[in-house]
Write a structure and sequence with these properties.
Layout (H helix, E strand, L loop, with lengths): L24 H16 L4 E3 L9 E4 L9 E21 L2 E19 L5 E7 H14 L10 H19 L5
Antiparallel strand pairs: 1-2, 2-3, 3-4, 4-5
C-alpha cells in the first residue's frame, strides 16, 4: 500500500482515530506503508492519521533506523514525571518547529501486530515521541501544545500551510 504524508490542516489530522479491532492484512499493509513513509522522510515517529488513515496505530523509532521501529496498536498513554519543554517538529508540518511542554515519562499499554499486549515505561526522547504521536491519534497536533511565544513565531508559516491546503492537497 503506497501511502503519502497528510499535511495540516487536513481534517483527518484533527478528527481522532478509531481503535484497531483486529490485526488483518489491511492493518499490516497500513503499517508497511507507514514504515516506508516514516523512513523516506527521516522521521522518528508516525501516526496513521498522518497518512490519511484514521486508525489508532503509531510507529516509534527514536534511532531513525529501519528495523528499530516499534508498532503500537491502540496505545493507552499515561503521562508521568515532571513536565519538560523540548523542541518538536512534525512530518505533517514541514519546516515548522517549536517548544512543547510534555511529561518527562510515560506509561504506555498497547498491542503489537501479533495481538499480544505490552506495557512499557518510557522516559526522555522516546516518551516525547509517544506523546506526540498519541496526540495525533486523539486529533491533536503539536502546535496545539506549543509555547505561546513559539506559536506566534510560526503563525506566518502556518498560514502558508493553510493556503496550500486550500489550494488542494500537496502530494
Amino acid at each position: 500500500m503506497a501511502l503519502q504524508i497528510t499535511y495540516w490542516p487536513e481534517p483527518v489530522l484533527l478528527a481522532g482515530a478509531k481503535p484497531v479491532d483486529k490485526v488483518d492484512e489491511h492493518v499490516r499493509e497500513v503499517v508497511a506503508g507507514m514504515r516506508a513513509v516514516m523512513f523516506s522522510l527521516q522521521g522518528v515517529g508516525l501516526a496513521a492519521p498522518q497518512v490519511g488513515i484514521p486508525l489508532r496505530i503509531m510507529l516509534v523509532c527514536p534511532t531513525g533506523q529501519p528495523g528499530d521501529e516499534r508498532v503500537l496498536l491502540n496505545p493507552r498513554i499515561t503521562p508521568r514525571g515532571d513536565t519538560v519543554v523540548g523542541e518538536e517538529g512534525c512530518l505533517s508540518f514541514p519546516g515548522i518547529y517549536g517548544r512543547v511542554p510534555r511529561a518527562s515519562g510515560v506509561h504506555v499499554a498497547y498491542e503489537d501486530l501479533d495481538g499480544r499486549s505490552h506495557v512499557m515505561e518510557l522516559d526522555g526522547f522516546v516518551a516525547r515521541i509517544v506523546q506526540h504521536e498519541g496526540d495525533h491519534l486523539d486529533g491533536k497536533v503539536f502546535i496545539d501544545r506549543m509555547l505561546p511565544e513559539d506559536r506566534r513565531e510560526v503563525e506566518a508559516d502556518l498560514e502558508a500551510l493553510r493556503a496550500r491546503f486550500a489550494a488542494g492537497p500537496r502530494r
